[in-house]
Amino acid sequence: MKTNYLILLLSIVFSFNCKAQELPLYVGTYTNGDSEGIYKFSFNTETGILSNKKLAIKTQNPSFITFSPNKKYIYAAGEGEISSVTAFKIIPNGNLELINIESSNGKGPCHISLNESGNKAVVSNYHGGTFSIYPINKDGSIQKASQVFNHNTKNEEAHAHSAQFYKDDLFVSDLGRNAVFQYKLKNNQYQLKRPAIVEMTGNPGPRHFALSKNSKFIYIINELESTITSVKRTKKGFKKIDEDSTLDKNYTKKNACADIHLSKDERFVYGSNRGENSIAVFKRNKKTGTLDKIQNIAVHGDWPRNFTLDPTGKFILVANRRSENISVFKIDSNTGRLSFLNTTDVPTPSCLLF
Q1: In 10 A of CB 258, how many CB atoms?
Q2: Is residue 73 very low, low, confident or very high in pLDDT (cuts 50, 70, 90)?
């Protein structure tokens, strides 16, 4: 009897451990081909294998997606016929259920993020050059935009590409105007603090950026010049401390950078190259914030628009839009270098979300 009980207990523990290794991965896509919307996979955090692909919900061009802080809801920037922001509820089987849709208040919404408390969202409109701030209700639904900012001027065409909250700060990367703007929350309204946190020389095209956990450092990936601009917060504002190429020294063809992330321990920075079709790996000096490139590794696909680190910090997954696959890499915890593991087919992936 005791033996049978022990076997049953071990079986339950083993089953629990196996399930604990499987994490949901949601995939935003473009639906102008074979894709139908947002897909869901299971990701094994021991083997790095993606499995159990299914369509979580049909929706048009959910090109960028993000979670609410409690991971009960997903929000999508939709580059469809109607430029929109959409709220979805995650139901028990992992599929998504539509809550509501609001206008993005600009053409070509390409990025969405939420603040730490989950009661505000910001959506960047690339073609419109605007970004919009939305209050979010407790049931996950989105209200109409409370503020809409237009970065276009008479002399400059704006292309708002991404925005992130940090406490009372809101940073907005504008590829068209070659600047990262800083806004401050005052009386529940965001007001412009700095039209450019640092001066960007030439035409770099700041696209996305990564904040250190304490926001003392900001790393901006520049789409047009294939560089990363490293910025440090000071008592008086911000200053540029480093500028690094994302490309291998022997690569001479066209390239357009896309995404950037810090490793979980903030010892490394990763950036994606569309053209060279690689991930650039940088070692980060945690004290000074400066970077040194240590690797360029092929993504085993074409046009890596977005990538993400899994929650364990052991893997990087890359969404290769044109080759329609997700590539998985193992991270060496000591060196930060990547090694290729496997690839999985998925139609026009554009955003990966754990």
Answers
A1: 21
A2: very high
Percent of the chain with pLDDT strictly greater than 90: 93
Distance CA 242, CA 230 (A): 5
pLDDT of residue 109 exceeding 90, the answer is yes
Check pLDDT > 80 for residue 1.
no
Domains and CATH numbers, the chain: 22-353 (2.130.10.10)
33: nearest Cα among 352, 348, 351, 349? 348
Dump the DSSP string for 181-240.
Answer: EEEEEETTEEEEEES-SSPPPSS--EEEEEE-TTSSEEEEEETTTTEEEEEEE-SSSEEE
Q: Residue 16: pLDDT above 60?
A: no
Give 37-41 contacts, CB < 8 A, sequence gap 24+: 37/62, 38/62, 38/65, 38/74, 38/76, 38/88, 38/96, 39/346, 40/94, 40/95, 41/344, 41/346
Strands across the sheet containing 291-298: 256-262, 268-274, 278-284, 291-298
Does the global pTM surpass 0.90? yes
